[in-house]
Design goal:
The complex is a heterodimer. By secondary structure, chain A is an alpha/beta fold. Chain A is built from 5 helices and 11 strands. Chain A has one domain: Rossmann fold, CATH 3.40.50. In chain A, the strands form 2 sheets. Chain A has a 9-stranded mixed β-sheet, sandwiched between helices. In chain A, strand 1, helix 1 and strand 2 form a beta-alpha-beta unit. Chain A is globular. By secondary structure, chain B is of the alpha+beta class. Chain B has a 6-stranded antiparallel β-sheet with strand order 3-1-2-5-4-6, covered by helices on one side. Chain B is globular, with a radius of gyration of 15 Å. Classes of the chains: A alpha/beta, B alpha+beta. At the A-B interface, strand 5 of A face helix 1 and helix 3 of B.
C-alpha cells in the first residue's frame, strides 16, 4: 500500500488542485483535506501545504493558519518524523508554526517570510532555485542531485527571509538553508534574489530534515504547458523542471 | 509636533474577529479585540487641521469604512499593544494597535496581553511589541 499524502486546505488556500495533480503525476497517492475535517489528517503519511492566502493572511501571512486545528496534527506528525512540505503560503505557515527552521519552541516563530524588499510589492517572476544542502540532509530532496537547479515561479509579497542576526546565524550554522535563488545558469548572486531575502534564501529545512518550506512554486513549472515559449509539437503534458522536487518527495515515501 | 493618528474600521473588522477567535482557541481570556492602524505625523500641532488632512488622504482613509482619531498619546493604552515592523515600509502604518478587552469591557490584565502578544500578535523576527510603559 502506497503512502498517502494529504494536501490540507485552509480557508483561502488556492493552489491545492495543481499540487494534488502534480503529486499524482509523480506517483503519489494525494488528496485534499479541508479545514472542516481536521481529524482526517491522522490517516496520512505525509503533508503538502500549498500556496494561497490562508485566512486571508489576517494578522500576518500564515499566522492564523499556524494555530488552526489542522496544524496541531501536522505539527504532531512532523514531530513523529513524517514528511511535511510547504510551498509559498504553506511555507509561511510552517515558519509561523515554528516547524522551520525549528530552532525555537513549537509555535514560537524564530524567522519569517516577511514583506519583500526593497519594494514591498507583490512579485510574480520566473526564478531558479539551487539546492544548497547535500541532498541527504533533507529527506524531501534526497533524490535530487547535489546542487540541483529547479525552475519555479515566485509569486508573493512576503517572501523575504527575515530574522534577528542571532537567529540567522543559527540558520546558517544549523544548515537550515535548503534552497537559494540562482540564475538560470546556476550562478548565485544578489541579482538573482527577487525579494531581498536574507542569505538569498528561497527555502528552509528543519533540523531533522523532514520539514521543508520553500517560497517559489515549482508546481507552476511542472508541465510543458506552463511554458510561454512552448513550441508547436511539444508534448504539453510532459513534465518540466519543477516537477523534480515533487518526484523526490514522492520517492522519499516509497 | 509629532502626533499619532489611529485609523480603524467602522464596518465589521474581520481581522480583529479572527484574532479574537484564534486567541480564545489558544486559551487567552479575551472577550473583544479592537484593531487600528497607527500613523505618525510630524506636523500635528493643529489637531483639527491634521484630522482634516488625513481624512482627505484617499490612500489611507475611506470615510465610508474608516473612522479616525487623533491621539493625545504617542504610546499604547492599558490593555493595548502596538505591533511595529522592525523594517518600516513606505506608506504603511507605523504600527498596528491591538486592544484587548475582557467580559466587562475593561482592558485585559498585563499578563493576558503578554500571552496574546507572545502566542499570536507578534512575530519577533519581524516585529516589536510596544505596550504601556515600555516605550
Amino acid at each position: 500500500m502506497s503512502a498517502r499524502i494529504a494536501v490540507p486546505v485552509f480557508p483561502g488556500t488556492n493552489s491545492e488542485d495543481e499540487t494534488v495533480r502534480l503529486l499524482r503525476d509523480c506517483g503519489g497517492d494525494a488528496e485534499l483535506v479541508h479545514w472542516s475535517e481536521p481529524d482526517a489528517l491522522r490517516q496520512f503519511d505525509a503533508y503538502v501545504l500549498s500556496g494561497g492566502f490562508a485566512y486571508e493572511d489576517r494578522i500576518r501571512a500564515g499566522a492564523v493558519a499556524a494555530h488552526d486545528r489542522m496544524m496541531d496534527l501536522v505539527i504532531a506528525a512532523a514531530d513523529a518524523g513524517k514528511l511535511v512540505f510547504g510551498i509559498c503560503n504553506g511555507a509561511q505557515i510552517l515558519l509561523e508554526a515554528g516547524l522551520v527552521p525549528g530552532t525555537g519552541p513549537a509555535r514560537r516563530p524564530t524567522a519569517a517570510f516577511a514583506k519583500n524588499a526593497p519594494s514591498a510589492h507583490f512579485i510574480c517572476r520566473h526564478v531558479h532555485l539551487r539546492l544548497a544542502l547535500e541532498p541527504g540532509r533533507c529527506a524531501i530532496t534526497a533524490a535530487l542531485p547535489s546542487g540541483a537547479l529547479i525552475p519555479a515561479w515566485a509569486a508573493h509579497a512576503e517572501g523575504r527571509l527575515a530574522a534577528t542576526p542571532q537567529r540567522l546565524e543559527e540558520i546558517v550554522s544549523g544548515g537550515h538553508v535548503a534552497f537559494v535563488y540562482a540564475h538560470a545558469d546556476g550562478t548565485v548572486d544578489s541579482e538573482a534574489v527577487p525579494n531581498g531575502s536574507a542569505l538569498g534564501c528561497a527555502g528552509l529545512v528543519n533540523r531533522d530534515g523532514n520539514v521543508l518550506a520553500i517560497m517559489p512554486h515549482p508546481e507552476r513549472d511542472a508541465w510543458n504547458f506552463n511554458h510561454l515559449d512552448l513550441i508547436e509539437g511539444d508534448d504539453v503534458l510532459a513534465p518540466s523542471g519543477g516537477s523534480a522536487v515533487f518526484r523526490s518527495f514522492v520517492q522519499a515515501l516509497a | 509636533m509629532k502626533r499619532a493618528v489611529a485609523i480603524s474600521l467602522k464596518i465589521p473588522d474581520n481581522t480583529a474577529y479572527t484574532a479574537l477567535v484564534a486567541l480564545r482557541r489558544l486559551g487567552v481570556a479575551v472577550a473583544r479585540v479592537e484593531r487600528s492602524d497607527v500613523y505618525f505625523f510630524e506636523d500635528g500641532a493643529d489637531r483639527t487641521a491634521l484630522a482634516a488632512r488625513v481624512a482627505a488622504d484617499e490612500a489611507i482613509f475611506n470615510p465610508n469604512k474608516h473612522r479616525l482619531a487623533v491621539l493625545d498619546r504617542g504610546a499604547p493604552r492599558r490593555g493595548e499593544v502596538w505591533i511595529e515592523p522592525l523594517i518600516a515600509s513606505k506608506g504603511a502604518p507605523a504600527a498596528v494597535a491591538w486592544r484587548l478587552l475582557d467580559e466587562a469591557g475593561a482592558p485585559v490584565e498585563r499578563s493576558v496581553l503578554a500571552a496574546a502578544v507572545e502566542r499570536l500578535l507578534c512575530n519577533p523576527a519581524i516585529d516589536r511589541a510596544v505596550t504601556e510603559g515600555t516605550r
